[in-house]
Design brief:
CATH topology of the largest domain in chain A: Arc Repressor Mutant, subunit A
Strand content of chain B: 5-15%
Shape of chain A: elongated
CATH superfamily of the largest domain in chain A: Winged helix-like DNA-binding domain superfamily/Winged helix DNA-binding domain
Radius of gyration of chain B: 36 Å
Structural class of chain B: mainly alpha
Order of helices and strands of chain A: HHEHHEEEHEHHEEHHH
Shape of chain B: elongated
Number of strands of chain B: 4
Oligomer: heterotrimer
Number of domains of chain A: 2
Helix content of chain B: 40-55%
CATH architecture of the largest domain in chain A: Orthogonal Bundle
Largest interface: A-C, 56 and 55 residues
Distance between the termini of chain B: 91 Å
Distance between the termini of chain A: 21 Å
Order of helices and strands of chain B: HHHHHEHHEHEE
Number of strands of chain A: 7
Number of helices of chain B: 8
Structural class of chain A: alpha+beta
Largest sheet of chain A: 3 strands, antiparallel
Strand order of the largest sheet of chain A: 1-3-2
Radius of gyration of chain A: 29 Å
Helix content of chain A: 40-55%
CATH class of the largest domain in chain A: Mainly Alpha
Number of helices of chain A: 10
Strand content of chain A: 5-15%
Strand order of the largest sheet of chain B: 2-4-3
Chain lengths: ~220, ~260, ~220
């Protein structure tokens, strides 16, 4: 940083950075910008005496035939994927939606209690599990059928899949933190109804003022 | 701080100012280890060569001053003070061969190690934060190209969502009356309550099974739990001297009657 | 029957695109994504028979000294602007709240000692890890839960993430500054206070093994 700062300032007094360096600068700015960049904007950002128009011409030439190209958008410039490689972008384009509360709760119960039957899930959640919820989780390949339970009716059980572990960055479902650990990590809302019984968590009385410590004013 | 060694007894003006600054700063320390590390630095030596005895004395002097100034000290500072006083005595007195446990030198060496390790982690943290950081010195693509819109929908959830969902369910659970899970379970207490009420009618020997509550005799799960609870309850009543129990031979029916 | 035969043949007969073309493809995919892309992902997206690993080596070389660079992040790859050009980007800088000393130290301890349990972090810092510190680091996606320690209580451990590596420009956790020196000086040992119970020693062994796993594999 210090080097470039020096370069930038010194150069402004004497001469512009070499064209190769200007090309690098334009390259970095076009890449990092969320919007196309005008020559005027480049001039304002680059060291005094730079010639971004010329750097753009050279950069554009350099990217000819490459996987990405320097293209003009209106009166501004941007980096774009070469049109013939658009097929590679296909996978990136999926609409993502957040999982519903029912689905995430069902998934959490399966992860923590697997193998678990539908009626056990309902018992833990306290509400019926809709068919669509289970179907969705199976379709996402986050849960699958486990072995049947050897009890009357031989109900099917559900377990989580490798895909689930991959998605959530877990080595195994047993690595999921327990209640105590969730609480210790501050993930558990400790608000309780007044007069509620004393639980296993009474040791966790580290105050909320600690939270303040996390950020310092600058 | 200053060049000469910290001397708790004879304080120069600058030293006293420094010591007072430390004391005023007590809220700024993250616990006794942090304070010890700061004191250790005033010795102006490599942390590996820090004098633990000297450090213990500095710490104890600090605590004394803080008390004299009536500063509120957290309990762990006082625990550390007690421990350092103990360590000091171990380091000063010749080792007592009859005494169990690690030597004063071992304890001092470990404290020195802890200080060095904490300092090392602080240096590492500073180096880490001094690195070029994404979004500060270097940048990712400002406009990621999520091209072709396909109607393909995926659902996402983070590990946080998952854990919070589970925590939500489980905390809800903590407030649920426990008996709701127990439709098919009879406890010994329940059986005992029931037997106490019925015991007066048990003048003659009768089969234990005939004492199972109504509705618990047919379903195998319920029958098993009711039998076990009733049997345990009758043992308790025998112990209390209210009931007699007999069995003709192994696996023969168990019979009970009120103690005459 | 004839169809499947043909498909099979097509797969094997169809030649992978020339390396220059593969390089273009990798270039396009890396440029398009804000997050690092794994070799496995590249393989899945590129035509059958492609060798993205080789293409990456070439591409990385091509961008040496340019305004943007091809960098390795864990087992994935990304394009990032050259750090010396950061001064051009003040427009892109997103002001982040400054992390507290406690959070920074906790992060460093996790990075250098991973996988590490909460109580080990507390042992090193000499104070309790405040609630919310771990929470915050998880939210920043800089740390995650690792394998449980095979000691009584099976405590969860914390490890750093790919996001951490990406943020601090590290290829892998082995590249943490000063890691070798710290290890050589014994400062990353899980050394217990003298006279601590024997059971704790097992803990130490396993901890070291895990650490090898994380740092030594290539």
């Amino acid at each position: 940083m210090a080097d470039t700062e020096e370069t930038g300032q010194e150069q402004s007094l004497f001469e512009a950075p070499p064209m190769g360096e200007q090309e690098r600068m334009v390259e970095a700015v076009l890449f990092a910008s969320a919007d196309p960049v005008t020559v005027a904007d480049l001039t304002a950002r680059m060291p005094h005496g730079s010639d971004p128009a010329e750097a753009l011409v050279r950069l554009r030439k350099r990217y000819e035939g490459r996987g990405v190209r320097v293209v003009k958008v209106g009166d501004a410039w941007a980096v774009r994927t070469a049109p013939d490689l658009g097929f590679l972008m296909h996978k990136e384009v999926v609409e993502t939606r957040k999982l519903s509360r029912a689905a995430i709760e069902t998934l959490a119960i399966i992860a923590y209690h697997q193998p678990v039957t539908r009626s056990e899930i309902e018992e833990i959640r306290g509400v019926a599990v809709s068919r669509g919820t289970v179907d969705l989780l199976i379709e996402l390949e986050w849960i699958r059928f486990g072995r049947r339970r050897m009890t009357p009716g031989r109900p099917v059980t559900f377990v989580v899949t490798q895909g689930f572990l991959d998605h959530f960055g877990l080595e195994s479902a047993r690595d999921l933190p327990g209640l105590k650990e969730l609480r210790a990590a501050g993930l558990l809302d400790n608000r309780r109804p007044p007069g509620a019984g004393l639980g296993e968590d009474d040791d966790e009385d580290i105050g909320d003022e600690d939270q303040e410590d996390l950020f310092e004013e600058d | 701080m200053q060049d000469d060694d910290f001397q708790p007894d004879v304080l120069s003006v600058s030293e006293r100012l420094a010591a007072e600054a430390l004391i005023v700063d007590v809220d700024g320390f993250e616990g006794p280890l942090d304070l010890l590390l700061t004191l250790g630095r005033t010795q102006k030596v490599d942390l590996r060569k820090v004098s633990i005895l000297g450090l213990a004395e500095q710490y104890l002097a600090f605590i004394e001053k803080a008390r004299a100034l009536r500063l509120e000290l957290a309990a762990d500072y006082l625990v550390m003070a007690a421990w350092l006083a103990f360590l000091k005595s171990r380091l000063l007195l010749p080792p007592d061969p009859s005494e169990e446990g690690p030597s004063g030198e071992d304890l001092a060496a470990h404290l020195a190690y802890q200080l060095e390790r904490l300092q090392a982690m602080r240096d590492a943290a500073a180096r880490l934060m001094g690195r070029d950081q994404r979004g500060r010195e270097f940048f990712s693509r400002g406009l990621p190209e999520d091209v072709v819109r396909s109607r393909h929908v995926t659902y996402t959830a983070t590990l946080m969502d998952l854990m919070q969902a589970y925590a939500r369910i489980r905390t809800k659970d903590e407030f649920r009356p426990f008996t709701m899970d127990r439709n098919n379970l009879m406890t010994m207490e329940e059986a005992l309550d029931r037997m106490r009420g019925l015991i007066g009618f048990a003048g003659e020997w009768s089969d234990l099974h005939s004492w199972l509550p109504e509705g618990w005799e047919t379903d195998p799960v319920r029958r098993r739990t009711a039998t076990a609870a009733t049997f345990a309850a009758s043992l308790q009543l025998v112990k209390e001297g209210h009931l007699e129990l007999r069995q003709g031979e192994t696996f023969a029916p168990i019979q009970i009657r009120k103690k005459p």
